Fold this sequence. Notes:
- It is a single chain.
- This protein is an alpha/beta fold.
- It has two domains: about 1-10 and about 235-330, Aspartate Aminotransferase, domain 1, CATH 3.90.1150; about 15-235, Type I PLP-dependent aspartate aminotransferase-like (Major domain) (Aspartate Aminotransferase, domain 2).
- It is about 40% helix and about 15% strand.
- It contains twelve helices and twelve strands.
- The protein has helices at about 15-25, 35-50, 60-75, 90-95, 115-120, 145-150, 165, 205-210, 220-230, 235-260, 280-290, 315-330, and strands at about 1-5, 55-60, 80-85, 100-105, 125-130, 155-160, 180-185, 200, 260-265, 270-275, 290, 305-310.
- A seven-stranded mixed sheet has the order 2-8-7-6-5-3-4, sandwiched between helices. The chain has a three-stranded antiparallel sheet with strand order 9-10-12. The protein has a two-stranded parallel ribbon with strand order 1-11.
- Strand 6 (about 155-160), helix 7 (about 165) and strand 7 form a beta-alpha-beta unit.
- Helix 1 runs antiparallel to helix 9 (about 220-230), helix 3 crosses helix 4 and helix 10 (about 235-260) packs parallel to helix 12 (about 315-330).
- The protein binds pyridoxal-5'-phosphate (PLP).
- Pyridoxal-5'-phosphate (PLP) binds next to helix 3.
Amino acid sequence: MARLYLNESPFPPSPRVVEELARSGYVLNRYYDRELWNKLIKLLSHYAKLPREYVSPYPSSSEALCKLLRLARRERLRAVSLRPGFHAMKDFARVEDVELEYFDLELPSFELDVDKLLKTVDENTMLFIFNPNNPTSNVLIRDPSIVREIASRVRILVIDEAYYEFSGITFAPLVKELGNLVIVRTMSKAFCLAGARVGYVLASPEMIKRLDSLRIKFDIPIPSIAAAVAALQDLDHVKKVVEAIKVMRSRMARELEAMGLRVLPSATNFLFVEVGVRGTEVAAKLREKGIMVTAFDDPPSIQNFIRVSIGKEDENARFLRALREVLKEMGRLAN
Ligand SMILES: Cc1ncc(COP(=O)(O)O)c(C=O)c1O
């Protein structure tokens, strides 16, 4: 099976991660390792170019998003997400017992109309923006002045930068200036550590304290901390992975466009492709051919799309071949 449905990295993590993991086994009799934890904070602070008090690691960015939703519930805030946006937010909201509201992106570009957004939110809102967005893969905000403006109109602004290493766009420096801005990032994508479940939050020390008050002690396993430390010590590996994925992404986008399909401009490790027929049907047919991609029935505006992660060369080639066959079968492509 070609796993092109979860936006995982097709490459294994740095060899250093594997070495460090083995070493971490020797301290598994302990609940925590102070030295390792401090190393992680130091490396993240260096990586994010922010003082240590502005950094807080989480057992995945999903867990950080859940804690933010929990904070919204505790503080009786409206939680507003984007549509289409990160689909798992719906599950997180169910788990945290939060009634999530949605703000619709503009069609057909799936861009963010900031003026319209500002009319929808208020000083009681916790707003979630995914930049770049999943599943649409595009960048929604490029300009820090827009972040300042939105932050001034909501209680808490959360910007999820899961694909920062691919987009090169970050608003992390603004957390020093905006006490209500929370940046959420993950090590699951460019750092190739999805299975370690490590993410982190960048925010003002006060905001971090508020969020951390909702979590339990020792929630990141020692091997995951060790893996994250080792991965942060090998940024060359991240660079190579990101470059390789970007090259394959351009090639794949060109091939899809040559098939007459619309591909959204991607700043991530996946593509969002308009296939012209029901995406879930295409995904089911691709699965029969050993290719796993994602498609959504909700919202209706993305029913004719599939989301495909960039895999290894051979997986991408297999995907393209299989997609051509499926679309021919479905009468969407001529023979
Ligand atoms: C926008 C966005 N945020 C968060 C996540 C979750 O990442 P993690 O593995 O850290 O839970 C994903 C994963 O696909 C994502 O696309």
